[in-house]
Amino acid sequence: MALPPEKISELRQIIHNKLTQMDVHSRIRDAVSETMEESRVSERGGGAVGEEQVLESLRQRGIIDEILSEMSFEEEPPRDVRRPTKPATHFVDREDRIKTSTPAKKAAIDPTRRHLYLQVKGGKAFLEHLQEPEPLPGQVGPTFTLHVLFRGQRFRSKPVPCACDPDIQEGFLLELHSKGSGEAAQMADSTSLLSLCDPVHMVLIKTDVAGDTALLTSHYLEWRHVLAAQDGYTNTAVELMGVGTESKVPVGVLDIRLEILPHPVHTLAPDVITTQLNLEQSRRAERERLFLVYAKQWWREFLQIRGTNSSRLVKIFAQDENATNRPVCSFVRPLQAGRLLDTPRQAARFISLLTYEKASTVGGGPRAEQWCTMHAFLCRNKGDCEDHSVLLCSLLLGFGLDAYVCVGTKTNNTAHTWVLTLGMDGEATFWESLTGHRYSHQPINPDDPPAVEQPRPQYPYRSVGCVFNHQVFYANSQPTDAVEVCHFNFTDESGWKAMSEEAIKSVCGEGTLPLGPVFPPLCASLFDPGLLSADLELELRVLVTEHRKDLGLTTVWDNELSYLLTPALAAYEQERTTGQISGNEEFQQAIRRAVPDGHTFKGFPIQFLHRNARRAFAGCLRSPVCEEIVSCRGDHVRLAVRVRVFTYPEQACAVWIMFACKYRSIL
């Protein structure tokens, strides 16, 4: 890539200053003088010194290597200056239109800090993809993407074609830092590294031709066996198991190399590592056993309160994607979004844009219930209502709200989860994680006479069995579990039976050994909303033109009218986020000025969660209003289309499309 002249001058000045600081010029003069002197006294020298001879002399003295070394790494800051924390999260965008073709930059590794280098050297035995069909010419086939989470650091591999032996060749450099400091441990020895009990969470995602994602495996890799390797590294074959009902079925094998950088001076005996792992496992098992004993006793007490309590949805444990039973409180943790989300309502809007999909089962029967860990949910970018509610509750807790996950049923008597927040005055607000809608809860008093007007609930919930977050768990023991008459005063022991906070903390607290990986941070979107909007709009214009051509109609686009639709799309997104709409008056004024007298204007807005133009156009044509606009016939017909993509964290997008037309009315 060519640089502008001013950048070239600036770069030359930087190089000159660096060479001057290293006193390179005087060292080169001394080396040249010595070389010329040696040439004179040499019998075959004749006094002539060539360029190659001078370069060889500089290379032998180590001057060239020193220059290259200094130019390749950043200048070391003073020891008394505190290092700024470098973000560990790194993503490679998989969208061909958006991703950059330049190679990734090499990271400047601090040799005074420990790192775990995880290298994936390929996959094998993915037998389900043994007969993977070849994609059509110009079509991208299904791909595998490997996601890695370790102590708050997230990485993902480049997508590779699905195959029986997928060519996954990736390296992940993971910082071994002290907990809570955000910085790498200063040359932690092997004994200190052995105390880091966090596993490496690996999630493998399959993306099909249409862009739909599927969770193939969720694996926890124990990395500390490398501390016993004499050479500082170890190679291992990791067998990946399926998820949900297929958690006992192998999916494939990954060849992995683990290495500690820099290599520890002393290695640990394998028996020491095995003893430590067994000790941690026994402690975890004992805590889980004690909590299970307490939960059984607590449940028996709850059933004795009222005979109908046995039919209420009181969920103490849930199965994750690996079919492992975990306390529901362990799925929630206060999560701060940094500068990616500004308000709780914006967080609700973001979560509503993640695709809703029930866990699938092979064969008939009731739906499978699967509560995904937050990392697996974010990697897949889709999940069930439980996944959405847990993430929303975690974000609302991060914003400082008193938030809980509610487990109950909807008006159609199907199981459902949503989020509850309580104000300082005890006012309850429901948050629907699948839509982002908020509902104020005003309980009905069933003892009031019929003449007293009662509030009419707007929320779609019928019953509530329990509520919980990362610290508390309450079961509904009121005379009825109907939401419309429930009071959410958790200090009232006659209405809510609480679990011991100490018991919950023993299995879900900060100081406990992790039952799973640490909760992942959110990652900023890598998409350019302007570029996405322009590309999608151009594709839609082509599709509309072809559609009208098939109908025997010509197409004339009105670019000015298309631009005037932008404020309406912005207002629609603002309404979904804040519940308020603005700018409608100005939009109507602009449209009236753009549509001449005697002409008719029609518009059709719609929102999608994907960025596939062909799918979006097919969805629009299902609406009679949109089909009428696209197939408009008449005099002086002018068409317009505007696309506005609003990006959110984790590659979530709200895609707003508006089709419009204006034509002369003929009576």
Automatic annotation (TrEMBL):
It comes from Branchiostoma floridae. Residues 369-499 form the CEP76/DRC7 peptidase-like domain. The gene is LOC118417583. Keywords: Cytoplasm, Cytoskeleton. Belongs to the CEP76 family. Residues 10-71 form the CEP76 N-terminal domain. GO terms for cellular component: centriole. Residues 108-264 form the CEP76 C2 domain. This is Centrosomal protein of 76 kDa.
